[in-house]
Amino acid sequence: MDDIAPPPSTRLDIKDLRVVMALASAGTTAQAASLLHLTQPAVSRALLSAEDKLEATLFDRTPRGLVLTEAGRRLVAGAGKLLVELGELEREVRTPATPPVRLRLVCECYTAYHWLPSLLVELRRSIPRLTVDLAVEHTQSPLPAIEAGDIDVALLTHSPLRRSSTFEVRPLFQDELVFVVSPSHPLAARKTFTAEDLKAHPLLTSHTPKTQDVWFVNQVFGRERPRLRVERIPLTEALLDLARAGLGVAVMSEWIIAPHLSRGDLVLRRLDTGPLERPWRIAWRKEAGDAAARLGKALLGLAPQRVAELDVSLQRG
């Protein structure tokens, strides 16, 4: 403790400042006494004591009441700020310290990493001591990782759910898988694609978990198991460049393609059977508690804009 400098020596104390502030506000010793719950003589003595300590006159005594002198105005201006800071310091000291919150998170679908960072910035405003670690090594098996305690939170798209005493699951929202081709592609003239169209042309996609592949085939082809020509491209920009060159049909989340549609060198199409929507859910270890629940609420409020909504906004613009 030897390195802590001694506090500066002052003549006034907090009681002196409160009396002067009350007198400046009330204008008379009688009204100041009512504000301070003191007697009028006690307030008069306190004012004289403060002026003696400073060796300065703080108020001119006039028939209309007390009027601040130049010295009094300087004291009141500084005292107000000082008392506010002291009050804030007291509240901070009385408030229990908030322990740091650390969440280990994985996304079952890599498309989430396109918008998740900006969401985490928003979340830190409500949980200032939050730290989120991305545990991408558990992408293929998020639920077992939660049960083993290796991660705290998972954003799920395809994992089959089961009852568990170790984690909670809640629905979040949906995104849509869409099909993107060059305007010169043979399928570009069609308003919608059929399952047969997808069999006849190469499909361009990123590296996806097997559970997502199974889900896609079930949604598009039902019980049929067709032989599809699938090219897996690790980089989004490379995948889109292949689509622009007319070398296949890109299959991707609406969240990824939305920023690229305004250039006019790609067109978006859907299936003739309707939107291919994926349900998103959040799962978290029960020990993660309130921080994980607040993450889920933030996701609901900050989910990326749907392509359908984007189309409407572009038309309005």
Automatic annotation (TrEMBL):
It holds the Pfam family HTH_1. Residues 12-69 form the HTH lysR-type domain. Keywords: DNA-binding, Transcription, Transcription regulation. GO terms for molecular function: DNA-binding transcription factor activity; transcription cis-regulatory region binding. InterPro entries: LysR_HTH_N (IPR000847), LysR_subst-bd (IPR005119), WH-like_DNA-bd_sf (IPR036388), WH_DNA-bd_sf (IPR036390). It comes from the Bacteria. Belongs to the LysR transcriptional regulatory family. This is LysR family transcriptional regulator.
